[in-house]
Write the structure tokens for this entry.
Amino acid sequence: MSEPSTALPLTVASLQDVVVRYDDRTVLGPFSLTLEAGSSTALVGPSGCGKSTALRLLAGLEPPTQGHVRRAAGRGETAVVFQSPTLAPWSSALDNVALPLRLAGIPAVQAADQARAALARVGLAGSELKKPAQLSGGMAMRVSIARALATSPRLLLMDEPFAALDEITRRRLADDVMSLWKDGRPALLFITHSVEEAVYMADRVIVMSPGPGRILAETRLSDGFPRAARFRTSPAFRDAVEEVSHALQMAMETAA
Amino acid sequence: MSRVTSLAAPLALSLVLLAGWELACRGLQLPVYLLPAPSAIAAALADHAGALFAAAWVTLSSALLALVLAALVAGPLALAAAVSPLIERAVQPLAVTLQVTPVVAIAPLVVSWAGLDHPEYATTALAAVVAFFPLFSGALTGLKSADPDLERLFDLYGASAGQRLWRLRMPAATPFVLEGVKVAVGLSVIGAVVAEISAGSGRSQGLAWTIVETTHQLRMAETFAALFALAILAVGLHAVTRMAETEILRKWRGR
């Protein structure tokens, strides 16, 4: 269950020995994870290892079967970006971005102004009135990211946000997310299937075992955000990718 | 297929069939009370245009009134069922029972309740009964159709039940409601026709009643004219509904 945080003030959200069971099947845990303010953490692991479950626990969207979830982020201070853009098809880009602000009780005019600014930050100035069906996949994901950032969250959770996009678009979006993230530096948790993406976007990469997911390995990287232009060719990047890939391979073999 | 071809093909087929019919009637010298030739039907249409128009209006108005009544019950009930699983559980089996019971079977009962002086009550009531289910189930399905991740976002941002209904569930229901309306429009005409036929003679003056009356009197050309008018009415109603649906959906999703 969510409780008021008694942990260090730097901790934005944490899972302590959580276990999640659906019916009699354990999908996660025991699992512990602490997200600190200003940090960027990537979660990689085989399909069905409970990554998304861990994310939902951190978001406060569901309670664990056992263990504790501590969340310092209050109502409206957590943002989630899902694998699909998850936009309301009947609403314009502007209305979609303004939605969390409106739900928080911010007056329509002010919410629209903030939403317009958020859209401009993700490079979508001029597309305010377009509806999701009129946007490309990459643009729709940008709207989704703008919506997540519009509330200036303390905790930003991203569940394979670029999985459905092409390589060029996902690299561009990764850079954009990191440069936007730099502004407020919310605690960021990033779930991905791509080891390179994980290493590129996070200063801590956690490899999970097949379900029920546990932590198998943890790789720490130098912060250095935003990444330098040639970061992907640097030895530090290659080494980290190797290390994470190796841990992931071990995880897969355990599963097989 | 080009627009012209797609319009011309059914038209051409109709003309061929009508020509065959006309030739058969003349060649075989069929008596008019058995099968009137298309030319005779056309003449009947022209002669009785005013009466047919009035009869069509009677049928149409009771079907439309029935739609409104059915929507007034189905809408709020679907909202209640969408919000409360208990209400859904309670209502759903009854709604399905109402749906699968043939309207023809309950028509005589409703007609006798309405009484000889007010057959229009029966036509409207029966049309409303058949229109109810597609409206109800369309609205209920639609209200529960919102993207689960979008529902989660509403949880995340602490949306109230009212905000969720107004900003998520009701707009998400729109395409399903429109589909329900389209089906209900067609069914409401069937309901009205069944009721008119059940009422038989009496004071009902709709198209179906005209069909029954003229058949009894072997004025077959008029029977066919009324049938033709009924078909035009139903096709027209369907076309108008579909155009409205397309237009609203275009607006809804922006293209």
Notes: Residues 235-255 of chain A form the longest helix (21 residues). Residues 43 and 191 of chain A are 5 Å apart (CA to CA). The helical segments of chain A are 51-59, 93-103, 108-121, 137-150, 167-184, 195-201, 235-255.
